[in-house]
Amino acid sequence: MKFITRFAPSPTGPLHLGHAYSALLAYDMARAQNGQFLLRIEDIDSTRARPEWEDQIYDDLGWLGLTWQAPVLRQSERMPAYRAALTRLWALGLVYPCTCSRRDIAEAASAPQEGVPPAFGPDGLIYPGTCRHVPNPAAPLPNTVLRLNMARALKALADPLTFVETGAGPAGETGEIVLSHNMLRDEVGDIILARAGLGASYHLSVVLDDAVQNISLVPRGQDLFTATFIHVVLQKLMGLPTPTYHHHKLIRDAAGKRLAKRDDARAIRLYRTEGKTPADIRAMVGL
Ligand code: GLU
Ligand code: ZN
User: I need a surface site. Which of 65, 95, 155, 159 has the fewest CB within 10 A?
Assistant: First the structure.
């Protein structure tokens, strides 16, 4: 089987040093194994994705010296596959519609212990389960939030839930990572599989896309380590292989703050206009 890595940016802002690190790492790892590096454009959120940012991604990555296979997979073209997967999970009784607002969730999540702040999981506030007990309509309505019934999903899974980490999580987690049912139920919970108006959530699309692209190794930032717990559950539910993961350090600014897309100051294109070279960028991220 061919060794394949990927870089999967969202075209919602400029690529910064952190993205350059992820992309270069994925590229170098593929080269070192005589494998393949793929680029995927994660543009399911049409309210935030912009063609200009997509063009800038191609331009910056080309400048960095990366090459990839065309055509590039774009998530906006994969909606039918995402819907088909949702329909299958719905038919298994593992999905339910949720009509809660953010505020409803915050209130219900903090209700049991007055004064205790609600807990956050990899998908935001851990969902308190309000809509889980409402009988499902005959079919999922388009344009509603759909959640995974985690407790039921776990009952359907016999395999031990594990993945192999070749980098490290935020607390240094590495090697074989074992996910307990209790942790998944209590600290991850009923995550969102489809967002109103978007058709699919990041978690569903990324899992289906990594599978369809036969990705062997996923290098990405440590901030996504706990999202991997969700991805492993979805892979097992849908009978998809689990790639190896390599979560890497986050590139921080001089003040130690994590770089975000809006930090234009660290945009690759600005370094380019300042006359920096691709070798300078590699040195800055420690590659
Ligand atoms: N599209 C995501 C981002 O730009 C990355 C997803 C992933 O690597 O799994 O943050
Ligand atoms: Zn709800």
Answer: 159
